[in-house]
């Protein structure tokens, strides 16, 4: 996040600057450089403006109160909430759907109860990928992984993969962004019997107005954010007004993180994207480092929507391994175990997966 305060530091050595009583200048106690007060004001004017903008940004909040709608009594009567007796996850489905297992922990024990409370979604992205598509994608996901335990693949119930609507908050925002970068140009040349390295440092400032539409943040604590961001993007042009008809035969997760509490993640995604855009305009340098940035948003609207995901969680040696597929685009992500015994049989492969964490990360983002 941008700084809301400014530290006055010497541009020569980086040490703190201080005004010494009885003097007309601001002095660096470390290197002794003296600066006129007017020069200091001009030097740090931009940083002061950015700090003020950052403070303003922190005070500006999204209009979250209009996201979602109230359920009608008929719609609420047609919905059930199922609570997993193992991990406590709460899922919502229509009255005709029977959940055979929890998609989060793989436990088959579910206790139905009446659905109540929470907001009705504004929109939904209907499923485009069928169960046959999901099963085929899962089987292809397992192919070529020679270190997979035999018991894992033999006992993996690919046909048990389930479709689920995941709650998302979508944020719109118009922003004013400014950033300060320190850019370097490095030139090396021969001078007599010496090789000279010349480094020039530039202070680059960028200002821009940008618009962001439908910044996605999932509204479920139980859904791993890394998984959900990995199966993005969804095509939000295919949003349709919500109807309980889309839930027929599907599970739907009930949000447990409201829009207001999701807003900081949306802010962070906006800020990171805005800084990346500004950084991309600083060209023809050997290196570019961010010094400071401020993003001030105009109040934007928020909508509540459900997005389609195929999901299967399989337990192996008391650990859950999850596979997900974007139910609209077919993009897949997942985690897999590996057989340490097989690793000794395939030393070349074992070198590539010497640690389970590395293997998980590779599968997660490939």
Shape: extended
pLDDT below 50 for ≥5 consecutive residues: which ranges? 96-100, 109-115, 353-366
Distance between the termini: 29 Å
Strand content: 25-35%
User: What is the radius of gyration?
Assistant: 27 Å
* Mean pLDDT across residues: 77
> Tally the helices: what do you get?
10
Helix/strand order, N-terminal first: EEEHHHEEEEHHEEHEEHEEEEHHH
What's the helical proportion of residues? 25-40%
Q: What composes the largest sheet?
A: 12 strands, mixed
Q: Structural class, please?
A: alpha+beta
Number of strands: 15
Write up this protein.
The chain is α+β, with helices and mostly antiparallel strands and 366 residues long. The protein has ten helices and 15 strands. The protein has helices at 37-43, 45-59, 73-77, 131-142, 150-155, 225-230, 259-280, 340-345, 347-352, 356-365, and strands spanning 17-19, 25-28, 34-36, 79-84, 90-94, 110-114, 123-124, 162-191, 194-218, 240-241, 251-253, 287-297, 302-316, 319-326, 332-334. The strands form two sheets. Strands 4, 5, 6, 7, 8, 9, 10, 11, 12, 13, 14 and 15 form a twelve-stranded mixed sheet that branches. A three-stranded antiparallel sheet has the order 1-2-3. The protein is extended and about 75 Å long. Residues 96-100, 109-115 and 353-366 have low confidence and may be disordered.
């Amino acid at each position: 996040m941008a700084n809301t305060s400014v530290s006055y530091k010497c541009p020569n050595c980086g040490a703190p600057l201080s005004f010494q009583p009885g003097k007309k200048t601001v002095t660096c106690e470390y290197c002794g450089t003296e600066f006129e007060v007017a020069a200091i004001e001009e030097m740090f004017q931009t940083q002061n403006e950015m700090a003020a903008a950052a403070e303003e940004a922190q005070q500006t909040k999204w209009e979250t109160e209009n996201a979602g709608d109230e359920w009608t009594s008929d719609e609420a009567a047609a919905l059930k909430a199922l609570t997993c007796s193992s991990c406590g996850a709460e899922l919502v489905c229509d009255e005709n759907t029977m959940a055979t297992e929890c998609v989060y922990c793989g436990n088959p024990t579910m206790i139905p109860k009446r659905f109540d409370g929470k907001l009705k979604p504004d929109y939904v992205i209907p499923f485009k990928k069928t169960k046959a598509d999901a099963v085929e994608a899962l089987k292809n996901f397992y192919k070529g992984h020679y270190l997979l335990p035999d018991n894992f693949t033999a006992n993996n119930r690919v046909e048990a993969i389930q479709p689920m609507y995941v709650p998302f908050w979508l944020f719109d925002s118009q922003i004013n962004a400014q950033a300060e970068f320190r850019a370097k140009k490095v030139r090396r040349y021969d001078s007599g019997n010496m090789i000279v390295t010349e480094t020039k440092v530039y202070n680059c400032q960028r200002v821009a107005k940008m618009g962001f539409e439908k910044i996605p943040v999932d509204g479920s604590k139980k859904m791993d954010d890394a998984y959900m961001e990995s199966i993005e993007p969804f095509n939000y042009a295919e949003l349709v007004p919500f109807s309980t008809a889309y839930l027929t035969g599907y599970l739907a997760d009930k949000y447990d993180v409201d829009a207001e509490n999701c807003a900081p993640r949306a802010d962070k995604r906006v800020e990171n994207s805005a800084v990346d855009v500004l950084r991309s305009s600083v060209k023809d340098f050997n290196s570019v480092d961010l010094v400071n940035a401020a993003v001030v948003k105009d109040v934007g609207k928020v909508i509540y929507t459900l997005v389609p995901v195929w999901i299967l969680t399989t337990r192996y040696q008391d650990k859950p391994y999850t596979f997900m597929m974007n139910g609209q685009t077919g993009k897949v992500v997942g985690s897999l175990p590996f057989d340490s015994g097989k690793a000794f049989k395939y030393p070349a492969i074992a070198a590539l997966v010497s640690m389970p964490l590395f293997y998980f990360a590779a599968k997660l983002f490939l």
